[in-house]
Amino acid sequence: MHITLCFEKLDPAPWVQGLQQAFPEAKVSAWAPGAPQADHAIVWAPPQQFIDEQRGLQALFNSGAGVDALLQLKLPPSLKVVRLDDAGMSVQMAEYVCHAVIRHFRELDGYDADTQVGKWSYRKPRSRADFAVGVMGLGVLGERVAQALRVFEFSVNGYSRSAKDLPGIRCFSGAQGLSGFLAASRVLVNLMPLTPETENILNQATLSQLPKGGYLINVARGKHLVEEDLIALIDSGHLAGATLDVFRTEPLPAEHLFWRHPKITVTPHTSARTLRDESIAQIVGKIQALQRGEPIKGVVDPQRGY
Ligand SMILES: NC(=O)c1ccc[n+]([C@@H]2O[C@H](COP(=O)([O-])OP(=O)(O)OC[C@H]3O[C@@H](n4cnc5c(N)ncnc54)[C@H](OP(=O)(O)O)[C@@H]3O)[C@@H](O)[C@H]2O)c1
């Protein structure tokens, strides 16, 4: 068996080492143009040349959850594309989103500002009943986030393509469910995949359906959001602000207004990072399952786009 690795920026050496330990008999190597044909590949943002040269792959493992960039390439229709499912990401996403929701709900930015000027002052407690959180996308990450928010006794709404029935979550689905979901959600958390259907889905028409004082947390992809529509809705007072981890252009350009907007919190696409050891263990398990002829989880449906 030959496993090849092709990463845009990451050093492949520790991955090669980890996979070699799991498969001592296999050839494991970082890809370079003209390299021999491999049976399995682990990639992040590979060039088209990689796909064109490696035509005999049994499976292409993406070293992340989102496969939108990979699906932009011209892939052989029969190629099995496999995403990371969880591998330590969902708990990170739950931490990040719960922190952002609580920071907004408890007005901790306001207390920070008071601290800067040595001011001791209380804010009136807000009613949790007024802060239902809507999680848009109830997949591997979204469902974990929704359940984590329930621990803090927030009312949680969920939105997905297919209808779902999850304990403690008010579920909405499909195009016909979107308006009801938005109107019922004071805080909107985006955890949908980026597909032709979901690109620009956070725009004036949808975000203005959040209740007045609504708040956006975008942790999925920058291209979900029409950035100028968000700024206009915050500046008009309809939305209270946003926490953004992903952007149309990354790194976020130095001159971008988001850096300086007082009601927008920016983090550098860090809400749920790929953890190397967990990811290697998951991919090793899936390669072993494929070798035994067993089905594996996380196979991407190119028609759906996720
Ligand atoms: N910021 C970061 O650090 C970071 C890290 C990892 C991932 N991400 C992002 O997070 C996204 C979500 O990850 P995941 O692993 O939870 O994805 P997932 O398991 O593929 O789940 C996607 C969810 O979105 C729903 N959905 C898809 N298209 C829809 C549509 N047109 N309308 C309504 N709902 C739709 C799906 O509905 P069904 O359940 O009906 O299929 C599913 O519930 C990733 O795609 C990636 O972009 C970000």
Describe the 3D structure.
The protein has 306 residues and is α/β, with parallel strands linked by helices. The chain is 32% helix and 17% strand. It has ten helices and twelve strands. The strands form two sheets. Strands 8-7-6-9-10-11-12 form a seven-stranded parallel beta sheet, with helices on both faces. A five-stranded parallel beta sheet has the order 2-1-3-4-5, with helices on one face. Strand 9, helix 7 and strand 10 form a beta-alpha-beta unit. Helix 1 (13-22) crosses helix 10 (276-291). It is elongated and about 65 Å long. The relative contact order is 0.13. The model has no long low-confidence stretch (mean pLDDT 97). NADP nicotinamide-adenine-dinucleotide phosphate binds at residues 65-66, 89, 137-142, 159-162, 191-195, 197-198, 219-221, 245-246, 269, 271-272, 306.
Write the layout of secondary structure elements.
Elements: E1 2-7, H1 13-22, E2 27-30, E3 40-44, H2 48-53, E4 59-62, E5 81-82, H3 89-105, H4 108-116, E6 133-136, H5 140-151, E7 156-160, E8 169-173, H6 174-183, E9 187-190, H7 204-207, E10 214-218, H8 227-235, E11 239-244, H9 257-260, E12 264-266, H10 276-291
Parallel strand pairs: 1-2, 1-3, 3-4, 4-5, 6-7, 6-9, 7-8, 9-10, 10-11, 11-12
Bound molecules: NADP nicotinamide-adenine-dinucleotide phosphate.
NADP nicotinamide-adenine-dinucleotide phosphate (NAP) binds next to helix 5 and strand 7.
